[in-house]
């Protein structure tokens, strides 16, 4: 067997949020596509610096909410007015007002499901085996360091140029990551 | 004061405009994970074992008494005509109300961009979930035949009958179960990045596996953070109307009925304010000892306590206003002799002691928080917070028991007394609550690590401490 190890990408470590933001702007402007930034918290301004578009999670939540409200109203109408009508104190068999509170709660419930599962779907999580999670320095990504990773699969990937560019942005550790 | 950074001078704001920092003593962001995760790592302190032992004992009492209730029937409680709704519903409403502060802190204060929420939101949300668990026990066991509890949900059963959705009790089933599920998911979503912190710090294989499993492979990717922040914002936006609706719907359990003292339109806002008030009381009761025992004084600072006291004061004053307005509506404005009697009976009837405990604890006690000296004396704040908890329990006692014990016909009047089962079972729910809370303290990051990091100046890419050279303009 050959002993060449497949590489996942190049990883650069930064100490300060401002440095990684300016590095991200450089990488964005250089036209890379398969790259990402890893930070211990959501750094403000990073979406713009990376050129990440507004998240689409809202749509999942909206669809969930509409589905929740509709299914609540339909369920109550069908159960109490069609399938087994129960006359209660001369009240109408179905009234949107009486059916509103449970439907309102279902709107919120399904909207929340949409937001949460939509977010995990967009992030392709859960994924428990990421190459970066095996990298020995990477555990600081949840602590106090900031990382920029460019994947080898990026069409513009060229190790020496990337190294020079990231070093000029103040990264002190640049390494290759095994796949 | 100025700091020369490169060729641009960045001036700090004048000292009188500076608020006390939310993370005291200018710790770096690594210190934040070390300190918070450190609470759940290392050796279990002795106080934890003692507290846990007491809590588990009390929890066992609670569950044994539930078993006793199941085998004999709800007659083991002090319920009898005319008070057929006693401590079970009081405790249910009280525990649900406690939960509301957690959601207010996590959702409403998030929408209002209150940065101080990050220091307390995780523990407050945990409190919400455990309080809703304690609350959820009561509707289940008060139906008597607990094994038929699933009839509350629209699940097909052999009788071919569906739940009756015109009843507010049915609305309550939906409100409370939605509240529990959404609070749990909101809490979990907030935990995911912090579970990744725990995973990355874990020394043993078992810990790495367990935290890693629940962290779902979170890497801190900014493409993930982008979706995550959006989802968190939406959840906060959904939880806000949710928390307002839950206690409104709980209040409709009473307000939709015809009973004097219950049949009133003021209930929804009055219940919501009371819920937040009692919840903040409980947050203060829990966090003042926790910050000391776990060494979190630099993360849950005196400023956090001060701000929570102010919320308690504001909501307590709304509650006080509602009490007075309720009296005015019933006695002066309604023109109904039954309404007027119900309220005079509260003030001067056989349960007047309950009414005046409520008035003292909920109307007078929070007014002490006007004074800065009181708000910065933690021992005093802690004692006042306990009075808030007691007062809000008595509010529900006043509403439930005093309204029921004397209704329209004097021939129907009676006097309710709890039995030993009522009392021990209620104390037992504290066992359940504290058992859960202590397990939470021991195994999970009790402050939102990633969120606290994000509000420090060191984490701000536009601040000199975050490495900014030119001031920034993103």
3D structure, described in words:
The complex is a heterodimer of chains A (179) and B (474). With 179 residues, chain A is α+β, with helices and mostly antiparallel strands. In chain A, 46% of the residues lie in helices and 13% in strands. Chain A is built from 5 helices and 4 strands; from the N terminus they run βαβαααβαβ. Chain A has a 4-stranded antiparallel sheet, with helices on one face. The longest helix of chain A is centred in the middle third of the chain and has 27 residues, at 57-83. Chain B has 474 residues and is mainly alpha-helical. Chain B has a single domain (23-156, 165-455), classed as Up-down Bundle (Formate dehydrogenase/DMSO reductase fold). Chain B contains 15 helices and 2 strands. A two-stranded antiparallel sheet of chain B has the order 1-2. In chain B, helix 4 (117-142) packs antiparallel against helix 14 (420-443).
Strand order of the largest sheet of chain B: 1-2
Number of domains of chain A: 2
SSE ordering of chain A:
EHEHHHEHE
Radius of gyration of chain B: 24 Å
Oligomer: heterodimer
Q: Tell me the span between the first and last alpha carbons of chain A.
A: 17 Å
Percent of residues in helices of chain A: 40-55%
CATH superfamily of chain B: Formate dehydrogenase/DMSO reductase domain
The number of helical elements of chain B comes to 15
- How many distinct beta strands of chain B? 2
* Alpha-beta classification of chain A: alpha+beta
Under CATH, the topology of the largest domain in chain A can be stated as Alpha-Beta Plaits
> In CATH, what is the class of chain B?
Mainly Alpha
Strand content of chain A: 5-15%
- How is the largest sheet of chain A built, in terms of strand order? 2-3-1-4
Q: Tell me, briefly, the overall form of chain A.
A: elongated
Largest interface: A-B, 75 and 71 residues
Low-confidence stretches of chain A: none
Number of helices of chain A: 5
* Overall number of structural domains of chain B: 1
Described by strand count, sense and barrel closure, the largest sheet of chain A is: 4 strands, antiparallel
